[in-house]
Amino acid sequence: MLIVGIAGGTGSGKTTVVRKLMDNLPTGVVVVMPQDSYYKDNSDIPLKERQKINFDHPDSVEFTLLIDHLRQLRKGKSVEMPVYSYLTCIRAKETIPIRPAKVVLIEGILILADAGLRDMLDIKVFVDADADDRLGRVIQRDIVERGRSVMKVLERYHDTVKPSHLQFIEPSKRYADIIIPGGGENQVGIEVLISIIEKHLKKKKTVKNAGNHKN
Question: What is the pTM of this model?
Fold first, then answer.
């Protein structure tokens, strides 16, 4: 199993990169596990307090659970991935079953900021993008998907998103094996990543066939 971590700032184009990888790799080979699914359950905190949580800080993510799930998948066991709601800031009762796959994509802003998770990643990718471009995408996404006003988005960006990006996310770029500048529009960078994954899959297939032939 190949575990690929795709990090980058909020609105950098990580989701676009993941989608293009999915479109270009064989069906059924890849599963995606977003970091957002592993935000800590805050059901014991009042809604008003939950909405003040800094989701761009490493403490907001239950990395231990994500790491445990990756270990289980590596052992060939299925896991139940949490479902997190940005509207209520808590986990849903439902979970999503994830089965072991040849390629697991872990996508999220903080996945290179945690040493334990980094150790689980076979390929570490950082999707880089200009701060103004990221802010534009954040405004559009948060209004449409999370029901926030422009003022709320800008307030959150200046209070938590930007400071956390500079403190945790940008420094984590130094751990990346591959940096894709220009976000999801960098077709050359994405093609390089696809070719590396395909090479790995081909190598695994060759080793497996050689083992079968030997038997």
Answer: 0.86
